[in-house]
Design goal:
Structural class of chain B: alpha/beta
Largest sheet of chain A: 2 strands, antiparallel
Strand content of chain A: under 5%
Radius of gyration of chain A: 19 Å
Number of domains of chain A: 1
Distance between the termini of chain A: 53 Å
Oligomer: heterodimer
Number of strands of chain A: 4
Strand order of the largest sheet of chain A: 1-4
Number of domains of chain B: 2
Distance between the termini of chain B: 36 Å
Number of helices of chain B: 10
Largest interface: A-B, 16 and 26 residues
Number of strands of chain B: 10
CATH superfamily of the largest domain in chain B: P-loop containing nucleotide triphosphate hydrolases
Shape of chain A: globular
Number of helices of chain A: 11
Largest sheet of chain B: 6 strands, mixed
Strand content of chain B: 25-35%
Radius of gyration of chain B: 17 Å
Order of helices and strands of chain B: EEEHEEHEHHHHEHEHEEHH
Strand order of the largest sheet of chain B: 6-7-8-3-9-10
CATH class of the largest domain in chain B: Alpha Beta
Order of helices and strands of chain A: HHHHEEEHHHHEHHH
Chain lengths: ~290, ~240
């Protein structure tokens, strides 16, 4: 039982990282109907910026997190403006192929700039303590990850539902032309969406580095794909869906590992994707929408 | 107030508007009549900045606005209620109205306009917190109109407000259009229901395959045999 709860906690920590990345996928898909395959690499860039902020600038966890988020937000907007905006009226497949190209460009651009060697996050950024909760040991890191993720998700919900830019984002994602008729600047709204999504990925990168220690230029691929699975699992384009999908996927993975099948861990995520696509293609939170003719 | 001179609009290679000219004076209700595919919605979208004319000019209050982005057109005082209402179904009635006032900063004025809209459409007040996707067609039309009014337009463009509505509701909507006009808003109305449109309009234009083929006061056009046969189910 203790073991089970312990794994559950691990799963939730991992899941909240997936959820943070999945949010960016789902928000961008919601507004421009593009699966931004470069999103996992923004996560990687965030991890490195956090790492350099801590090691070179000698900053603490929170300032590093803030710097990584800000830098990734700018980076995300640049990617959108340079690579995707010119293709807004092109076919979806053209944009998708471009996204894969951007992803490879960032990965190998990073290797070109700093080499392929991995780095280890310093493990003294936050005090390592074990909290004892009803006989279950929970590391202070898990608690911090969960707290930061939860805070960011609540902040996102607030932005999307209560602020002007959030309302503009929802309007544009629902009906771009109608949004234009309200006087909404669609280009700026799309940029804001990329900025917010990328900032969350940057935060996930720093958290990931702190939790798993090792970071390297290709680290974004697998978490990126899994976050994509999480977004589809929850229903692509639906923000609460991405949160739930991420957490669920993290817990499933941890439980599979705990059951002794840790080599199957990565496979299970994609089995989940296949199952959801067969049985509930709109995702857990999605409604089936018939294509209108 | 609005003056359109000889505009040409293309969809790719299709020549959708061929040298269209039209004029709307302050305080009028002007209606644009035409069959499906004649170019009515294209003309409206060009005025509101969703489409750009290839040639020709559009003057709103003596300023050139052809080819300007939709945002700057709304700012100048033209609101467009699109065909099929296009309310933001995933948002509440109240949020839809807020978005109508997106470009405005005068909190007090916005509050006043909320009250005005709720007065004009009491149904919207009852359903303030409801998701607009769950409203009936008539209520969605009211919401789309209310949303446009929240921008405090001087020219209100209405594209097929009666589409798909029960006859009684159509009457209500038209009465409200007249009310909006009487409170000082100029109106450009596109309608399939030409009888209804002519009954409230001061003047009318008839558009066929991208060209204006007739224009005049509503009374004149109602009398014309040609118009009666083609658009009024003439007897």
């Amino acid at each position: 039982m203790e073991q089970f709860i312990q794994q559950l906690v691990n799963g939730i920590s991992l899941g909240s990282i997936y959820a943070l990345i999945a949010l960016g996928y789902t928000m961008v898909y919601g507004i421009v109907k593009l699966i931004n395959f470069a999103h996992g690499d923004v996560f990687m860039v965030g991890a490195f910026i956090g790492f350099y902020s801590i090691t070179i600038l000698d900053l603490g966890f929170f300032p590093a997190l803030l710097i990584a988020m800000t830098a990734c937000a700018i980076f995300g907007v640049l990617i959108e403006r340079i690579a995707y905006k010119p293709l807004r009226n092109a076919t979806r497949i053209a944009a998708l192929i471009t996204a894969i190209g951007v992803s490879l460009f960032i990965e190998y651009g990073t290797i070109y700039i700093r080499g392929a060697q991995p780095e280890a996050y310093p493990n003294n950024i936050i005090p390592l303590k074990s909290l004892d909760l009803f006989g279950v040991k929970i590391s202070s890191q898990s608690v911090l990850i969960l707290a930061v993720s939860l805070f960011l998700m609540i902040l996102l919900q607030f932005i999307v539902h209560k602020t002007k830019i959030g309302k503009a984002m929802r309007a544009v994602s629902h009906d771009m032309d109608a949004a234009k008729l309200m006087g909404i600047n669609v280009n700026n709204t799309i940029s804001a969406t990329f900025a917010i999504g990328s900032a969350l990925a940057g935060a996930a990168g720093v958290i990931f580095g702190m939790y798993y220690t090792k970071i390297e230029p290709l680290m974004g691929i697998i978490p990126g794909l899994k976050a994509f699975v999480a977004a589809v699992l929850g229903g692509i384009g639906i923000i609460p869906g991405a949160m739930a999908g991420g957490l669920l996927l993290g817990v499933i993975e941890s439980l599979v590992s705990a059951a002794g099948f840790s080599l199957w861990r990565d496979g299970v995520a994609f089995v989940v994707l296949i199952l959801i696509l067969i049985f509930r293609p709109a995702g857990l939170f999605g409604k089936n929408v018939r294509e209108k003719v | 107030m609005l003056k359109i001179n000889d505009i040409n609009v293309y969809y790719g290679v299709i020549h959708a508007l061929k040298g269209v000219s039209l004029e709307i004076n302050q305080g009028e209700i002007v209606t644009l009549i035409g069959a499906n595919g004649a170019g009515k919605s294209t003309l409206l979208k060009t005025i509101s900045g969703l489409l750009k004319p290839k040639t020709g000019e559009i003057l709103f209050e003596n300023e050139h606005v052809a080819g300007k982005v939709a945002q700057s057109i709304v700012k100048r005082g033209i609101s467009h209620v699109p065909e099929g209402r296009r309310v933001f179904a995933n948002m509440s009635v109240e949020e839809n109205l807020e978005l109508g006032a997106y470009l405005r900063k005068d909190k007090k004025g916005i509050k006043e306009d909320f009250e005005k809209v709720y007065q004009l459409f009491p149904r919207l007040l009852e359903r303030k917190k409801q998701l607009s996707g769950t409203l009936s067609g008539g209520e969605q039309q009211m919401l789309a109109m209310g949303r446009a009014l929240m921008a405090r337009p001087r020219l209100l463009i209405l594209d097929e407000p009666s589409m798909g509505l029960a006859p009684l509701l159509v009457k209500t909507i038209f009465r409200i259009i007249e009310e909006i006009n009487q409170s000082g808003t100029t109106i450009l109305l596109v309608e399939q229901n030409a009888n209804m449109a002519l009954s409230i309009a001061d003047r009318a234009y008839v558009i066929e395959t991208g060209k204006i083929v007739a224009s005049g006061t509503s009374a004149e056009l109602s009398q014309s045999d040609q118009i009666r046969n083609a658009y009024l189910g003439g007897h």
